Amino acid sequence: MSSTEPAFVPPANVLPKVAPVRVAEGERLRSVQLPGITLTVRSRPPAREGLPPALYVHGLGGSSQNWSAMMPLLDDIVDNEALDLPGFGDSPPPDDGDYSVTGHARAVIRYLDASGRGPVHLVGNSLGGAITTRVAAVRPDLVRTLTLVSPALPELRVQRSAVPTGLLALPGVAALFTRYTRGWTAEQRVRGVMALCYGDPTRVSPEGFRNAVEEMERRLRLPYFWDAMARSARGIVNAYTLGGQHALWRQAERVLAPTLLVYGGRDQLIGFRMAQKAARTFRDSRLVTLPDAGHVAMMEYPETVAGAFRDLLADQAARGAAGTVSAGS
């Protein structure tokens, strides 16, 4: 099955009724129609006008809600927006069924070009980290800084705990897994995801767990849920095999924007050993390691990740001021 063949989407008159997406206090959702895609954008009003824009991109199986804990901590320094990638969250599948890393990167670029918000402080987690790395490499004009939380960049030795996610990319596996797990409750599924993605799942509040279960129930009613998951997983695997100028590590070398790298010591999906390789590859990078964090540090330790992001922006501002003084002296 090609990653670019049209995705199966039932006609609108046979789509099941699906509960609305949760919106946290202070957040707003809007739908943006672009050529070939419709994106849902989650935003928060900035503390004041004129703040630089930031755009957040989630990982495989995630949504813009993954950034709801961190965005309020940054309202005073950036104008926050987070995307639901095509086929995830509240965004419908892309018209062309392209869930490749390049296809997702193209969606981000289309949005930034259409909105006129670039250059932005671009932030990505996991698959979103691979996507935003590609965006920063091919369209440096759209990126002020790049922040990567456990980015899904190629590894020679994949962790054993990450193998099931990779297997999802194989044709037929998603359908097999769907049949095998038909009897699983949403609560069971959420506990499994949290055990895989969090360094310490007990950090999730009861309310946070209930919200995650509600979102899981909503997603499982979407007829394209597993198709989007499987094709996006396949997109990651395919991106790992690309060579030449399209190789993700080669593109990481080309990124010009100041880059913040955040890695969790208990990440079961992205090897902690990749932190040093990333720090060597991105030319203007700073590395923050969180020994107790898992794969979604921005959800598990939002204050720490937000603090590191603030430091990145403060350093960039200081560089700009120093450059202005130097040019005027």
What does this structure look like?
The protein is of the alpha/beta class and 329 residues long. The chain contains eleven helices and eight strands. It has helices at 101-115, 127-138, 163-167, 173-180, 186-197, 206-220, 225-241, 248-254, 274-281, 297-300, 302-328; strands spanning 28-34, 37-43, 53-57, 79-84, 120-125, 143-149, 259-264, 285-290. The chain has an eight-stranded mixed beta sheet with strand order 1-2-4-3-5-6-7-8, sandwiched between helices. Helix 2 (127-138) crosses helix 8 (248-254), helix 4 crosses helix 7 (225-241) and helix 5 (186-197) packs across helix 6 (206-220). Residues 1-16 and 161-174 have low confidence and may be disordered. This is Hydrolase.
Tell me briefly what this model is.
With 329 residues, the protein is an alpha/beta fold.
- Helix percent reads 25-40%
- Total helix count? 11
| Element string (H = helix, E = strand) | EEEEHEHEHHHHHHEHEHH
Question: How many structural domains can be distinguished in the coordinates?
Answer: 1
The CATH homologous superfamily is called Alpha/Beta hydrolase fold, catalytic domain
Distance between the termini: 61 Å
Class by SSE composition: alpha/beta
Task: Return the CATH topology.
Answer: Rossmann fold
Strand content: 15-25%
